[in-house]
Amino acid sequence: MERHAFAMKVKEGKMNDYRKKLGEIWPELTAYLDRNRINNFSIWNAADLIFGYYENADGAVISAEEEKVKTALTEKIQNTFTWISTPDQDMRLMYHNFGVVRENKELIRHRMFMTKLKDGCEEEYKARHDGLVAQRGDKIDPGPDSNFSIWSAGGYIFGYDEIDTTMEVEETPEAREATVAWETRQLGIMDWITNDVDWMTKEVHPSSVRLAWHN
After folding, report:
1. What is the pLDDT tens value at each position of the chain, 215 positions in all?
2. Bridge partners of residue 12, in order along the sequence
3. Cα→Cα distances 147→71, 105, 124, 127, 215, Å
4. Which of 3, 36, 46, 195 could be 205's S-S partner, Cβ–Cβ 3.0 to 4.6 Å?
5. Bridge partners of 202?
6. Before 206, cis peptide (omega within 30)?
7. What global pTM score does this model have?
8. 98 φ, ψ to 5°?
9. Whole-number Cα distances in Å, 162 to 46, 119, 168, 177
10. Alpha carbon separation from 168 to 68, 82, 103, 108, 207 (Å, rounded)
11. Considering only CA atoms, which of 99, 97, 147, 92 is closest in space to residue 125?
């Protein structure tokens, strides 16, 4: 399975238009996804940012005719946003924890977050997360994280996590202390866009919202 991600910024005053046009193209878009066996497709929003995630089979190739369909669909909504990622190219994968893939998504909880890197901090962010992968030994994680990836483009960070709710446990004081230490350190290299650490900083940010999803 290959994982892919894209990101864009909605133009000022165009969020309602973006939502409306997304609804208008949705039947054609989902038909395109089904024909090309693109799965677990979702679109997320916070502030004026859009993040998209999807999966397909290893080595899958889109035909020239289907590429034309995708281009035509994009053109119908293109005037509502500017690209953050490069079209038809994945963003940089900054972190991954790909565990056991759950075929049944009914007991999966999603977490999607967004941050903005401080100038010149992209490599430090990547190095810190490479360290987490090394600590884990890059082994398959039984859970609760079953599909966790963090992507970067245009100075932004986008995190996508699928969490098996049957494996979640209450956070211990020690785990909370470690989280506070990590997130405090991260504030030196990035600023939050979503509200994931508002409980710690006492700031107020929007939550990420899943605008659309197609399995």
Report:
1. 899 999 999 999 999 999 999 999 999 999 999 999 999 999 999 999 999 999 998 888 889 999 999 999 999 999 999 999 999 899 999 999 987 777 777 889 999 999 999 999 999 999 999 999 998 887 787 889 889 999 999 999 999 999 999 999 999 999 999 999 999 999 999 999 999 999 999 999 999 999 999 98
2. none
3. 29, 11, 23, 20, 15
4. 195
5. none
6. no
7. 0.94
8. -90, 105
9. 18, 29, 12, 23
10. 43, 38, 18, 11, 21
11. 92
What separation in angstroms does the CA of 176 have from each of 7, 60, 87, 133, 189? 31, 41, 39, 20, 21
Structure tokens at 112: 């999607």
- Asked whether 43 and 118 are in contact (CB, 8 A), the reply is no
Strand ranges (DSSP E) for the chain?
2-10, 39-46, 49-56, 81-83, 92-97, 108-117, 145-153, 156-164, 190-192, 209-214
